Amino acid sequence: MLALLIPGLLFTPLALAVLCLLVNFRIGRLFSWVGIIVQVLVALGLWATVADQGGLYYDLGGWAAPLGIELRVDGLAVTFVLLTAVVASAAALHAGAYLDPRKGYQSYFWPLLWFLWAGLNGVWLAGDLFNLYVGLELISLAAVGLVALGGEAPALRAALRYLYAALLGSLGYLLAVALVYGSYGTLSLSGIAELAADHPPAPLILVLAALGLALKTALFPLHFWLPAAHGIAKSPVSALLSALVVKASFYIMARLWLEMGEQAGSIWLAQGLGALGAAGVVVGSWQAFRQSRLKMVVAYSSVAQIGYLFLLFPLSWGVATTTAELAQQGITLHLISHALAKAAMFLAAGNLILAVGNPQVSALAGVSRFLPFSLFSFGLAAVSLMGLPPSGGFVAKWLLLQASLAAGQWWWIGVLLLGSLLSALYVFRIFRASFLETGSDDPFYHPPRSLEVIPMALAVMAIGLGFVANLPLTVMALPVGGGVP
Amino acid sequence: MMTELLLDLLLVVSLLLTALCALLAQDLFRAVVMFMAFGLLMALAWVRLQAPDIALAEAALGAGLTGVLLLDAVSHFRQSDSGAGSGESS
Amino acid sequence: MKLLLVLIAAVVLTVVLGQTAWQILAQPTPVDLRELVAEAMPDSGVAHPITAVLLNFRSYDTLLEIGVLVVAGMAGLSMRAVAPLEAPAMRTSDTLLQALLRWFVPFLLVLSAYLLWAGSDRSGGAFQAGAVLGATGVLLRLGGVPLDFLRPGLMLRLGLVLGFAVFLLVAVMGAIRGDMFLAYPQEWAGLLIVVIEAALTLSIAMVLVGLFAVAPAQATERDWPSREGKR
Amino acid sequence: MTPVQLYVLAGVLLCGLGFAGFLLTSHLLRKLMAFNIMGSGTFLLLVGLAQPNNTPDPVPQALVLTGIVVALAATALALVLMRRWYHLSGRTDLQGGPGD
Q1: By CB count within 10 A, which of A184, A337, B68, C122 is most buried?
Q2: CA of B50: which chain C residue's CA is closest?
Q3: With touching defined as 3+ CB pairs under 8 A, do chains D and C touch?
Q4: Which chains touch A (3 or more CB pairs under 8 A)?
Q5: Does D have 3 or more CB contacts under 8 Å with A?
Q6: What is the SS3 assignment for A358-377?
């Protein structure tokens, strides 16, 4: 059974990308609905299989690790594959109803989406350094194609700035791969982990990889390209980018850090990344507060939430393994809850802008009276973003709090609290605008119900994550337990 | 043995010079032509590194097609931007 | 000020990179893939190690890489599908180039076929052959030959995707047969690799010529007189 | 000073040069050329570091082939966007232009 799940996971998105390229938007939508069902089922099947049998290595093409490419299918990878299945299918379903099929270029949305999905699955599962590079490039180019779809000037400028930042980041990572291959002779991540003990890697490897991938993850101060790209793109695309694409490069950095961090890392690199993350939280939130356009507020909030992710490095370097595990669990849960909440927020923001017809925050006056459903889904997502109990965001921040205390690095607690306060700042500003009363009649266009249900479902999941947090956490901790052919 | 090393040194120096010129040339067209020369010298470097496949690919894809696409873009931009490329040393 | 900062950063990067590279060159590497490749060559279906690595041992990389190429081709097309901005002018059609073409095009086609076939036992392969074929298409386009299949329509998209689709089909057949994804059956490996390479060559050439011919946003009609009338 | 050391040194210098050129130029086409130069430097390092005594190793050479095609795809995509951006805004850099 397993021998069919992984090929199914890798084959379906690529096959659908090919099919959707040959047809127009409407037929492509039909194919994509079928593809979404298959992908979600395969992701669930894979998650269940790993949940009870433990992780495994899957040798692509039948060639074993150092020569061939192996996929590392462990708890963490499978949890993110399932997360991608949920968020990407939500964004795709929303896009099906949200995008205007009459425009010619829209027929390229589905192929780019499926290539993006294939790249994401490739990165979550990859156990080979160069394979991660090619997967990352496929994601970046598909994402740039999605941002630039339509060819208007602001979208083009955002896409160009994003492309150039992504290319420079990829080159930084490729330089690190070249140094790793030069010093170890192998590219397989597991092989390097074994060899790293008695052949300590050069510290430059981790610094280059950190800089390159931080640029692709939009860590402060390298975040200049993100707000325009995520703010101007169409909301299903922004949801995909903010929830998943930005996390792929962080995931690679986290994997490298877990494999080589002990030997190649240093206190300066760990604390430095943590400090940049903390600065990102503060600056991102402050910028989000000062934005006048709704989607730019949500885009800058992404910059802030990404800052939290980089607390993983200081909290997992030179500390007891239990603390490191606590930090990893906190960061993974934060990544999952942020993906769900941010996707819900962007989709809900898209619906609100569609209804109001004006991207400005100030134009939201009266929305709370006439569009309560959309605003409520936006609010629910914001609850998880702010980390209020009982949401998944809260549990994640709680774990990070405990990890910082256990690691004796108390200053991260200040960052966690300040971040929550600041995110409350920019969320309540949006709500204040929407509660202003306008006249008694209803000036808004009411988007179809199917558009409004999707963000609500995602927001409920983000909140629900808080209740079932230990389920993904236990599965995520499953290492690779022997190869199951 | 010595002459081989001198030839390699010559190739590396010209490689770096063409790269520098490609970045610093004031006229865009000359910069792209220098870039194509850089691509061809890279193909020679790959031959010296015992990688004939890459030499072929670099010559055909790197210098050839990338150069053609760049030249097509230059003819489209078609204005000699004097001050735009601030370059490294100016 | 920024110039100084960037220069310092570049010099620091170069020095540290050079020092690390020197250390790495000095140490022997614990794993040597050359022997592993040599051992696995007999059952890889081809004689040339690089083609074996590209299309058999690490074929997943090549599959994703062709995906990247198709995405680039597609983005070019999607920009082009926005209102056609330029007259479908042929750029140059002077006689000297067309005379040269009569000699070059057959030679380049033979060279491309040779490179494709040579890939299995000496240096060559789908990418080099595709690049030469693409260059031929660009030359034809420059020489004023209207390559009609390059109009953005089903034919062009089919051509873009053909190589990728063939590769994907062969890959999934491995999985359906119960073997791993992207695994070729032992005795058919050589033939399958050649079939994949042929389809890839065509698709790479189509993407490259497509990107050149379909490049959007030429200068407007006013300063780029259409040659349509002269034909 | 073996030939491989020389080409590794060339790779390192090209990386530094490409990096400086990428950050300093504002013209999109020059930035793209700087990116390609830095890419070539990285590929030289990828092959050079793997072949200290110049015995050819097929794996990094295959990786560089893949890298060259990926770099070409990225360059082509950047050119397509750049030309469209030039046509709409008349600018060849990302400073001003509509919708700033």
Answers
A1: A337
A2: C123
A3: yes
A4: C, D
A5: yes
A6: CCECHHHCCHHHHCHHHHHH
Q: How many beta-carbon pairs under 8 angstroms link A with C?
A: 170
The answer as to whether D99 is a domain residue is: no
A106-115, A193-202, A298-307, D25-34: least confidently modelled range: A193-202
Nearest to B56 among C123, C211, C219 (CB): C123
Distance from CA of B80 to the nearest CA of D (A): 11
* Cα–Cα dist A159/A138, whole Å: 15
- Residues in D whose CB is inside 8 Å of some CB of A read 15, 22, 28, 31, 35, 38-39, 42, 45-46, 49-50, 59-60, 63, 66-67, 70, 73-74, 77-78, 81-82, 84-85, 88-89, 94, 97-99
Residue A106 gets which letter from DSSP? Answer: G
Tokens of C44: 């890889």
pLDDT tens track for D48-60 = 999 888 888 899 9
Segment C55-74, tens digit of pLDDT? 999 999 999 999 999 999 88
Distance CA(C202)–CA(C137), nearest Å, equals 11
Q: Diameter of chain C by CA atoms?
A: 68
Only one residue has tokens 């890419």, namely: D39
Query: Given pLDDT bands bounded at 50, 70 and 90, which one contains residue C219?
Result: very low
Contact A191/A65 with Cβ under 8 angstroms?
A: yes
B32 to chain C, closest Cα gap in Å: 16
Domain extent listing, chain B: 27-78
Inter-chain contact B61–C127, Cβ cutoff 8 Å? Answer: yes
Any idea of the CA torsion for C79, C83, C85, C89, to the nearest 10 degrees? 90
Contact state of B54 with D3 under an 8 Å Cβ cutoff: no
Q: Using CB atoms, which residue from C29, C74, C172 is nearest to A111?
A: C74
Sign of CA dihedral A188, A192, A193, A194: positive
Lowest mean pLDDT of A474-478, B2-6, C169-173, name the range: A474-478
d(CA C199, CA C187): 20
pLDDT digit string, tens, across residues A198-213: 888 888 999 999 999 9
**Residues C112-131, buried b or exposed e (16+ Cβ, 10 A)?**
beebbebbbeebbbbbbbbb
CATH assignment of the domain containing D82: 1.10.287.3510
Contacting C residues, span 47-86, partner chain D, CB-CB under 8 Å: 49-50, 52-54, 57-58, 61-62, 65, 68-69, 71-73, 75-76, 79, 82, 85
- What domain range includes position D45? 3-89
**Would the CB atoms of A118 and C61 count as touching at under 8 Å?**
no
Q: Is the minimum CB–CB distance between B78 and chain C shorter than 8 Å?
A: yes
Asked if B4 reaches chain C (Cβ–Cβ under 8 Å), the answer is no
For residue B4, the model assigns a pLDDT of 87
Buried b (16+ CB within 10 A) or exposed e, C54-72: bbbbbbbbbbbbbbbbbbb
Domain total for chain D? 1
Gap between the Cα atoms of A17 and A109, Å rounded: 10
DSSP secondary structure letter of residue C15: H
CA dihedral in degrees (A276, A278, A283, A289; nearest 10)?
A: 150
Burial environment of residue B79 by CB neighbours within 10 A (0 to 12, 13 to 18, 19 or more): exposed
Helix (H) or strand (E) holding A56: strand A56-59
Secondary structure letter of residue A72 according to DSSP: E
Domain map (residue ranges) of chain C: 1-30, 39-230
CA gap A65, A63 in Å, rounded: 7
Q: Is residue D78 one of the residues assigned to a domain?
A: yes
Asked if residue D42 belongs to a domain, the reply is yes
Q: Considering the entire predicted model, what is its pTM?
A: 0.93
In angstroms, rounded to a whole number, what is the distance separating the alpha carbons of residues D55 and C32?
12
D40 inside domain: yes
- Residues 31-70 of chain B whose Cβ lies under 8 A from any Cβ of chain C: 52-53, 56-57, 60-61, 64-65, 68-69
